[in-house]
Amino acid sequence: MAMAEAVKLKDGGERRGNGEGGNAIAAVFEKIAEYPTRWRTFLHEVRVEMRQVTWPTRHEVFVTTWVVIVTVAFFGVYFFGVDSGVSWLVQRIIRLFAH
């Protein structure tokens, strides 16, 4: 009997799945009714977090954008040079062994 009481306490004082479909339906409706409250809480927390964000100034965005553009251009030219050099080298090796 102690095991049955432990299971009953674990389930919150009532056994589920013993043919009581009304409790399951009520639980579903309770869960659906919680959604507006949960959404309201979520949106409030989002608003609080967004107030804590440190937004960059216009100057910081401008400078950072130029750093990215210059870096991409540099690496584009660099990889173009490396690719061209390796391609030239591979073509020379192929021509060397083709004869």
Structural topology:
Layout lengths: L1 H9 L10 H31 L6 H41 L1
Task: Provide a concise account of the structure shown.
It contains 3 helices and no strands.
- Biggest beta sheet summary: none
Unreliable stretches, pLDDT < 50, 5 or more residues?
none
Strand content: under 5%
Mean pLDDT across the residues is 85
Radius of gyration: 34 Å
Topology, number of strands: 0
Order of helices and strands: HHH
SS-based structural class? mainly alpha
N- to C-terminal separation? 93 Å
Q: What global shape is seen?
A: elongated
Describe this structure in words.
With 99 residues, the protein is an all-alpha fold. It is 82% helix and 0% strand. It has three helices and no strands. It has helices spanning 2-10, 21-51, 58-98. The longest helix has 41 residues, at 58-98. The protein is elongated and about 85 Å long. The model has no long low-confidence stretch (mean pLDDT 85).
